[in-house]
Specification:
Layout (H helix, E strand, L loop, with lengths): L10 H9 L5 H5 L7 E7 L1 H6 L1 E12 L24 E9 L2 E8 L24 E12 L8 E9 L8 E9 L5 E4 L2 E9 H6 L1 E6 L5 E6 L10 E4 L5 E2 L2 E5 L2 E8 L6 H10 L28 H7 L18 H12 L1
Parallel strand pairs: 1-7, 9-15
Antiparallel strand pairs: 2-5, 3-4, 6-7, 8-9, 10-11, 12-15, 13-14
Bound molecules: zinc ion (2 copies).
């Protein structure tokens, strides 16, 4: 709203320029609304599942009760003398011989409200400011199924950013808190379940606590094999649909299978006896005479960082042969010098 040059035109033009009001003039100025206040509201996944109420305290400015927002004891509103009630001060700056630039800036005397109560008639409650500080605690209703980024509007509850303006809205933006167990994907939920290799091979039963406190049991029957990183879908155990809370998404369970670090000879023997072994010859072993054993075998904890660390392994070794575009120049010059 700072300064800006501009030719003639009346004071209403000035306001239209400042506030982008089309053809309203002074009458429309009163209808200008206070600024809305946007606030992030942290909500747990439990509350988004069940719905509920959250308490929220907000500070705001309300029209002073004692003077009905006029700022004066008499109830009269005084136009600011410094800006003639426009809220804008106009300065002229000489640009050159016979040329002046018009600069507009918000009136500092009335804080661009256009009103200024003389000290003698100032309301003692608000000291002529027309507004007083207020604090209110709201019970904010969270609908079941609301999403991250959903907006809750408390209309007209943000108070007044300037005297004489209609109050603004409080706009609450739902920020979904991270959950320890469940991840949300739209109306669906995803959870991870770690089971042992034995459970993966022989079936298992596990329980978990849902977001509404119910304890659910999942039975993987004997005979079914759970593969690592496979998923199961628990139908209708996801998030409620917003606006249709009796309809729900799915819960997807991703299985981590924990393998034993080592096996004893007896365990290995028992497993070989229990599970079909495809036979040594069938397991990719070639039937030739000249076979070499690989001796250096180590574990790789993280293949991505392992491969990253391998990028420069051969660089030093091949330096005299490789031509690397980046550091080719100095070497090339050196070669030339040697030839001369
Ligand atoms: Zn003023
Ligand atoms: Zn007052």
């Amino acid at each position: 709203m700072g300064s800006g040059g501009g030719g003639g035109g009346g004071m209403s033009d000035l306001f239209e320029q400042m506030f982008g009001m089309g053809g309203g003039g002074r009458g429309r100025q009163r209808e200008r609304k206070s600024e809305d206040v946007v606030h992030k509201l942290q909500v747990s996944l439990e509350d988004l599942y069940k719905g509920g109420t959250k308490k929220l305290s907000m500070s705001r400015q309300l029209p002073c009760d004692a003077c009905q927002g006029s700022g004066s004891k008499s109830g009269k509103r005084y136009e600011c003398q410094a800006c003639q009630g426009t809220g804008v001060q106009v300065h002229l700056r000489p640009l050159g011989p016979g040329m002046m630039q018009q600069i507009q800036s918000p009136c500092s005397h009335c804080n661009r409200t256009g009103y200024s109560t003389p000290p003698g008639d100032q309301c003692t409650s608000c000291k002529g400011k027309c507004l007083v500080a207020d604090k209110k605690t709201f019970d904010v209703h969270i609908d079941a199924g609301m999403k991250h980024g959903s907006k809750i509007v408390l209309r007209g509850e943000a108070g007044c950013s300037e005297p004489g303006l209609a109050p603004g809205d409080i706009i609450l933006v739902v920020v979904q808190k991270e959950h320890d167990v469940f991840q949300r994907a739209g109306v669906d939920l995803v959870m991870e379940k770690t089971i042992s290799l034995t459970e993966a091979l022989t079936g298992c039963t596990f329980t978990f606590k849902h977001l509404d406190g119910r304890v659910l049991r999942v039975v993987i029957p004997q005979g079914e094999v759970i593969k690592p990183n496979s998923f199961k879908c628990l139908h209708d155990e996801g998030m409620p649909f917003h606006g249709r809370p009796y309809q729900k998404g799915n819960m997807y369970v991703r299985f981590n299978v924990e393998f034993p670090e080592t096996l004893t000879e007896a365990q290995a023997k028992a497993i070989r006896a229990a599970l079909p072994v495809p036979g040594a010859a069938a397991n990719g072993t070639m039937d030739v005479d000249d076979v070499e054993d690989v001796h250096k075998i180590t574990n790789v904890a993280d293949i991505e960082s392992e491969l990253k660390s391998r990028v420069n392994v051969a660089k030093g070794a091949g330096e005299s042969y490789e031509s690397d575009d980046d550091d080719d120049m100095p070497r090339g010059q050196r070669v030339q010098c040697a030839q001369q």
